[in-house]
Amino acid sequence: MSERALISRWLGRMGYQEALDLQEEIVRRKLADPQSADELLLLEHDPVYTMGRNPDRSSLGESALLPHPVIHINRGGQATYHGPGQLVGYPILDLRSRGQDLHRYLRVIEEVLIEALASWNVLGLRSEGLTGVWVGERKIASIGVGVRRWTTMHGFALNVQGDLTAFEHITPCGIAGVRMTSVSIEAGREVSPGEVATRVGEIFLSRLDALLPESAPVEAAPSN
Question: Looking at the domain assignment, is residue 221 inside a domain?
Fold first, then answer.
């Protein structure tokens, strides 16, 4: 197993561009120094819509009519919303030392979130053929990643509390008719992003190497 360190940081609430700049800085540092630690950034965002590099922009609807700004970024996937009450996680990992398998990496993120949800007696599930985590037919977490020379950025957004109506202005992740939910709704009590961040960080720190064995099959490096 890899002995590479993983540093988990809770950053509180910050603007999307500020967080994106921080990710880019860490990625540049890791590419320049392959021995530098992997990091997991955990935070909340000010309200914003993001759109991945998919050429089909229909999930975003009419950008001019949206109630919050739109930022186009280099992750995979369609449109989504980030805002207060949502836990956003940006794992910045060197996959060359963690199996070099992008498909498996996405499944790992799902597994970590499913395990974290169980801490609040919320049964998280996968939906066949789709990336993310569901509770029944309701979506609770979205995942979209970018990879540069096998170093990851972007990551996941787990709805924890707060107003979900911002999702109604778009087609979240390009899935027509999808219903969004949150940890607080499913648990039947208010849960804070900070306490969920603590649990998610613990699971990443304790299980990531076990979930991404070095013996995993190698795939061609994806481009962004």
Answer: no
State residue 3's pLDDT score: 54
In a domain, 220, yes or no: no
Contact 155, 91 (CB under 8 A): yes
**Containing domain of residue 28, as a range?**
6-211
How far is it, in rounded angstroms, from Cα 220 to Cα 185? 40
- What pTM did the predictor assign? 0.89
Q: Give the CATH number, domain containing residue 47.
A: 3.30.930.10
Q: Within a domain: residue 150?
A: yes
Residues acting as catalytic residues = 173
Domain count for the chain: 1
Q: From CA 89, how far away is CA 39, in angstroms rounded?
A: 10
Predicted confidence (pLDDT) per residue in 28-48, tens digit: 999 999 899 999 999 999 999
